[in-house]
Amino acid sequence: MLSLLSSQRSPRGNARLQGLMITVWISLCFLGTSGQGSSPEVTARAGETVTLPAPVTTNIFTVSWYRGTTPCDTQTIFTYNPSTFSLANGPQHTGREVALSDGSLQIIGVRTSDTGAYTVSMALNYGSIPQRTTQLRVYGTEPSPATPATSSAGTEPSPATPATTSSCWQVALVVALGVMLGAAVIIAGVIVYYKRLLDKKLVQNDQITWENTRQGNIGQPANEKLGADSTYTELNYGDQATYEQLNRPRNYA
Prior knowledge:
Blueprint lengths: L1 H7 L2 H27 L3 E5 L4 E3 L7 E8 L8 E6 L4 E4 L7 E3 L5 E3 L8 E9 L2 E2 L3 E8 L23 H53 L14 H4 L3 H11 L6
Parallel strand pairs: 1-10
Antiparallel strand pairs: 2-7, 3-4, 3-8, 4-5, 6-7, 8-9, 8-10
């Protein structure tokens, strides 16, 4: 093109035209470089999943994403090598950032606190490219966590007791009732046993007192032979009188 113009104009005019074209070419190169270094902006609503694209998606050796505009170790989100699938998370990784195979950064469930600058630094297989910063704008309010349903009276229902806790309480209650029932049976058996002994002792004392009274030996030691006759001691007072009448020696003379 320059040769065509130079053939139609004077040498002085050609020099001016060439100078003008060189100036335009330099300006275009400068504008193109400035456009490459500008910060793209991504806008998302709170709770959505957004992707911050990488400037290059092929021939990636390593890609590192940083929080902020200054790449440094303390601002590292992750460093990813797509060829070996090796991933190293940094201090700024919150568990919601995902490294995509094309070098992009994906943030799951963005929050308003995620608003800010994100810088990517890439090393390619054939060289490197300048780092690029992307501005993320998050608007809206974050969804509040689900609250438990309230009852018709306006009070929150009590939380359900875990099945394991309920089973433990039931087992403990059954064991306690079993222990109490066993103790009650033992105590009742002891009471009945000692009551029988006491009743037997009272009956024997009444019989001995009655025999001593009959023989006029009040205040004397109890008749030891009285308890020997089992048939006699098992009779009531009326039966004892009958028994004595039948066994009284008779004088037939």
